[in-house]
Amino acid sequence: MSAPxxxxxxxxxxVNGLRHSLVLDTRTSLLDLLRERLDLTGSKKGCDHGQCxxxxxxxxxxxxxxCLALAxxxxxxxxxxxxxxxxxxxxxxxxxxAFIEHDAFQCGYCTPGQLCSAVAMLEEIQRGWPxxxxxxxxxxxxxxxxxxxxxGNLCRCGAYVNIVExxxxxxxxx
Amino acid sequence: MSxxxxxxxxxxxxxxxxxxxxxxxxxxxxHSPPGFVYATALQSTIAKxxxxxxxxxAALAVPGVLGVLWHEDAPRLHExxxxxxxxxQSPRVAYRGQIVGAVIAERYEAARQAERLVRIExxxxxxxxxxxxxxxxxxEPEKVNPSYPGRTEEGDFDQAFATAEVTIDRTYETPAEHxxxxxxxxSVAVWREDGITVYDSTQGASSxxxxxxxxxxxxxxxxxxLSAHVGGGFGxxxxxxxxxxLAVMASQAVRRPVKLAVTRQQMFDFTGYRTPxxxxxxxxxxxQGRLSATAHAVYEQSSTIREFAEQTAxxxxxxxxxxxxxxxxxxxxLDVPTPSWxxxxxxxxxxxxxxxxxxxxxxxxGIDPVELRLRNEPEVxxxxxxxxxxxxxxxxxxxxxxxxxxxxxxxASRGPRNGHWLTGTxxxxxVYPARRRPSEAxxxxxxxxxxxxEIAAADIGTGARTALTxxxxxxxxxSPGEVRVDLGDSGYPTAPLAGGSMGTAxxxxxxxxxxxxxxxxxxxxxxPGLPVEAHVDTGAEVQGDEALARYAFGAQFVEVHVNADxxxxxxxxxxxxFAAGRIVNAKTARSQFxxxxxxxxxxxxxxxxLLDLRFGDYANHDLATYHVPSCADIEELxxxxxxEHDPHVNPIGAKGIGEIGIVGTAAAVANAVHHATGIRFRxxxxxxxxxxxxxxx
Lengths: 174, 697
What we know:
The complex is a heterodimer of chains A (174) and B (697). With 174 residues, chain A is an alpha+beta fold. In chain A, 29% of the residues lie in helices and 16% in strands.
């Protein structure tokens, strides 16, 4: 039995505003590309199977699990990671500040994914996308909505209560 | 000019917060030394037997593959005391998923491809993996983790139980559970002729340093272990796991730095887990609820290669009063991985059983369960006769009942029903020992006027870096901003691991001592110039600790909603009140308590590693099938603490808080489910599958 040789392809991506053109093994996931090739280790590998959310990034503005995305399938995409959330002057994104203020993390390993997920999630609510807990009324950023919509991002330290409060704070919920 | 600032107690932000929210904090696997390559672990596909041959030809033909290791060609290890770490030294397979080899490759993708092409031939024997009450292999371990006696006897339990006015005799079961920190275990090993460097995801850099040095026959000083940021551990990173050894071996074999990450699936095989337990609890009391007879017998497992006996019955020895008491542990050795520490080993499963049994006794005696606990408050530790350094269980129960709005109940009662939803409330006590271990630490005043603390401690998310900053600031009488704490490096003064809720107490004692010594040196004014430093060891101080019973206590109150149609159990709110000495950081401490309670809700309702009897390992070995609580599972958690001044625990007066939050939660939930449904679930977790059909619709 001989192994088939790996197939390579050229992929161009814009990551946090920077354009990268790379020749990649076509089996490379976006997550491994970020972490192992571009030294953007903010996106975390917690399961590599799309089950924990630690690798959540924004692909063309929508949240996605980078471990389930093959880089070659996203040629030309605009990627944002946790490293791109703060301003160029170093000023933190409102969610980053709220996470620190509310102690919305302990070990910090799920945090980049939680933050990227929260950024996109608040936009999804703004666009009126419903969730499993949305009733008859128009979608609003309630704590129940936050809990439901943030459930793809596991936190084993158990910071959920603080994560919800941090996001509610940014969403200006009472 | 420094001012006397009180930093301890303040709710200051985590000092490494910015690094963690920007993605700058680097965890073990994120270090990429020049010229590094990848290794992946090969695991046995049988549960018992021997590896008789390995055909690596196809794997080695994959472009970029540098080597395949197995027991016939792996480097020989020197001194290894933990049999779990003695990998690739013999053909023996002791459990399914045990490491039997490694693939080393230039690229991760190639390593993963080659991994599947390695053909391992086994001689397979029948395996025995199921813990059951009638297993013929049970014996009583002399000691249980870490060094408690396996059995205790006080008074005459049999006589007291036979004559008690109210008795219960119940058996409870808890499943195997896996720690599952979010960061999978990982090691980046750099082997050189003159020493080894390992970036490791560990709770204790000093202990990894020791064990790696011994295993590879090096002096301790020639091994350096770095772990600046660790993505959780909950005990599973408390001792080195076999992948550390494998990474170093691989680096030695190819003479290049090696990155090795344990996959989430592999974490269910060789990074430890909580043993399943079968626990028989017998309690006897008089009509006033005063306990006269207490017995707790625990049946649990270990592997065939190492004895790990969880100390499950130990809280029953000290929790409540009563003259006649028997506790025992019974272990059987199965063809399974060695169980290990998972958040509050012993107390967590033990208090689930004890606090469930106390609830059952309270109902049988017709006494409110809070009141029954209050009536069994011991004046001294019933096991040792030692005085309590402080004990505020009564205050926790009273404060918790007040905050929760507990309505006393006498005998069997049911919570209200609202349509399909049955509601109930439950209570349980929490406890965790407050210990400390010897530690070293260094304090230094830099030429720029800043203070630096160095200690080989670990911050696995506990907030250790922040707490030690506050402790040092107070000891130095400066503001926390003037202090930097450097930890997670075995090159710093030796420190015990982050475990057993002993970190703050052990490291904090050394930090206080180092800071005091530094101040004394500075006050003498006889040093030539800056920097000036003090390096201390608390060994003698800790050994001289007075014999006292030192414990943190707590009380948890939980409301549940049980759906009569679907069997779902929700926890809309829970209140935890804890008495853990002095709270060093009000913000991070609260996070620790709610984190523990959150994991406790998981234990009650979700978590269970399911055995596949045919293959002999856990079938639900990922985060899609092993359910940990998600955001939607956790609603309102309220945490408060009782101010305790306990000068007997350590110079800070702080008892550990990393574990007590999970202790008792599952019992409080199960007791609430009983109140809601009238059904006593004596096996965890209380899943819809177990509830549905048993609740009257």
